[in-house]
Amino acid sequence: MLRSRVLRKRLLEWYDRAQRELPWRGTRDPWRILLSEVMLQQTRVAAVIPYYERFLVRFPDARTLADAPEEELLALWSGLGYYSRARNLQRSARAIVECGEFPRSFEAIRSLPGVGDYTAAAVASIAFDLPHAVLDGNVVRVLSRLTAEQGDVLDKRRPGDFNQALMELGATVCLPRNPQCMLCPLLAQCAAHAAGIEAQLPVKLRARDMVRERIVLCLAERPGRVLMRRRPAGEVRLAGFWELPEAAHLRTAQRTEMLGQFRHSITRHDYSVEVWRAKVNKAPAGFRWVSREEMPRLPLTTMARKALALAGRKAASEVD
Ligand code: ADE
Question: Which terminus of the chain is less hemmed in, N or C, by CB atoms within 10 Å?
């Protein structure tokens, strides 16, 4: 117990001194904290920051999101991926509005749509100082290297800072490869370091094999417009999002020039995507000639964004 008190104190002192300035730190507003935790569920800190800031300009509280059209929400989320997070967040916003206030217990937070044990513990501890421990990949790694004292390390007086301090240590010092042990506030307590096995912990589970697939996208243009397809409501992934047509969708299209290729990975799929300029006379059912002005307001799939960016770079290089 003494060791874990020392450990908590060292960790919190280190966190107070060394934490990164992140836009969701220094707030106790549960709405902002929920948003940050939902965005951080499957996305890295650096990628989340600009989305988080833009999102809050438009949706500073649960009510604004509860009342918003889904398409606008998805347009602001577009590029972050895992869009069910956005839809669940809107359902949570509606539940919060209906309740009259943000729920204040772990169980009530946990019952919001899309909120699991991890996110509920993070929000409960950071926004309300409730003593719930979080366990994400970083935290598991730090604990697995540290000691067998996992059970009782949470600091009950500063649980939110304690949770974030462990996440921070995992993100900046106790790295998966090349852990920066000389910068670690817990070096003296670290069993893995004492045994010289920090680089081997935690034991890695074998990554599931990726499924490779080739996709051919068609860029069909009219002056100021691009042919796009809205993914139908029944799609498992990305329903309602706009994408570039695949060659398989446009049987009569004439492909004229390969504009380039890129890789795109989603969960277990590793796509090799070719982008072709194509001639299309008539938009088939379910397709639309979308104007360039309208495009920033539409939720585009990340694959479509990448393809349009590639085509834009190609066009710019031809003008030079
Ligand atoms: N990852 C998940 N939640 C986080 C937080 N609050 N701070 C930094 N990284 C995180």
Answer: C
Q: Are residues 137 and 10 in the same domain?
A: yes
Q: Does one domain contain both 44 and 68?
A: yes
Concatenate the DSSP letters of all residues of 243-281 into one string: EPPBGGG-TT-EEEEEEEEEEEEETTEEEEEEEEEEE-S
User: pLDDT tens digit string along 79-134?
Assistant: 998 889 999 999 999 999 998 999 999 999 999 999 998 999 999 999 999 988 89
Cα separation, 121 vs 131, in Å, equals 8
Q: How far is the CA of 122 from the centre of ligand 1 (A)?
A: 8
**Alpha-carbon span 3 to 61, nearest angstrom:** 42
Task: Tell whether ligand 1 has an atom less than 6 A from the beta carbon of residue 37.
Answer: yes
Q: How many domains does the chain have?
A: 2
Q: List C-alpha distances in Å: 103 to 50, 108, 134, 180.
A: 27, 6, 18, 39
Note the pLDDT tens digit of each residue in 258-280. Answer: 999 999 987 678 899 999 999 99
Residue carrying structure tokens 């994400």: 136
Atom 1 (ligand 1): residue with closest C-alpha?
A: 40
Is residue 219 located within the same domain as residue 109? no
Domain of 223 in residue numbering reads as 211-319
Residue type at 235? E
Name every residue whose Cβ is closer than 8 Å to that of residue 300 and which is 6 or more positions away in sequence: 78, 241, 242, 243, 308
* Nearest CA-CA partner of 253 in 279, 227, 275: 279
Take atom 2 of ligand 1 and give the residue whose Cα is closest. Answer: 40
Is residue 135 within 8 A of residue 144, CB to CB? The reply is no
**Dist. CA 7 → ligand 1 center (Å):** 20
Q: How many Cα neighbours within 13 Å face the side chain of 258?
A: 7
Separation in Å, CA 50 to CA 24, 54, 71, 77, 247: 12, 6, 19, 11, 33
